[in-house]
Amino acid sequence: MVGIRQFDEEKLLAQAEGVFRAKGFEATSMADLAMATGVQRGSLYNAYGDKEALFLRSFARYEARFLAVAQEALVIEDPRLALIAFLEAAISNMTAAPTGRGCLTTRTAVEARQAGGRVRDGLCRLMLELETTLRTALSRPGAAGRLKSSPQQAARLLVVFTRGLAVMERLDVAPDTLRADARALVDLLVPA
What is the pLDDT of residue 101? Predict the structure, then answer.
């Protein structure tokens, strides 16, 4: 029947995310997406319009999942333990992907000049939301007094650090090394 999608959208968006994560936004073609999802290019164009729109739908799912995991880690009252849990979650996100290594956000950000404004806006929105989530957690009464910097500065540093971790992971730095680096940052931000 015309106009009715003949595919499972959640499954398709997950498969598209895997392709974007593995190949990057620029290198991914609609033919790649069609092959990975088993949905014809014409149907993808009819459903989403173009590659950018499909990326944005897939990225919205990724963003929601990533922020939920970050928020869950940061509910821990002790700021050291919360930051260790947050950074562990970030490292797991980079290293546990079955469809490709690295961080979808950082990989796409590297290409952001070539990507459209809506893609850049989506990346910036996620980074701002992540920074806000971190700042909120680090502003709790029990946390703020233990920080060596302001909650705002610590949150910004953590966002920048996670992007650096993603780059190092792409260079095949071992997860244990990434975890050791993360703990060293936590020691600097919230001394024991």
Answer: 63
Helix axes 41-48, 30-37, angle to 10 degrees: 100
Let me know: does 19 contact 98? Beta carbons within 8 Å: no
pTM of the model: 0.87
Length of the chain: 192
Give the 3-state DSSP-derived string for 39-107, with helices as H, strands as E and coil as C: CCHHHHHHHHCCHHHHHHHHHHHHHHHHHHHHHHHCCCCCHHHHHHHHHHHHHHHHHCCCCCCCCHHHH
Q: Is-contact 111 26, C-beta < 8 A?
A: yes
Give the C-alpha separation, 94 to 171, whole Å: 12
Domains delineated in the chain: 59-189 (1.10.357.10)
Contact 79, 138 (CB under 8 A): yes
- pLDDT tens digits, 20-49: 988 888 889 999 999 999 999 999 999 999
Amino acid identity of residue 167, one-letter, is V
Place 66 in a pLDDT band, splitting at 50, 70 and 90: very high
Structure tokens at 7: 């595919």
pLDDT at 4 over 60: no
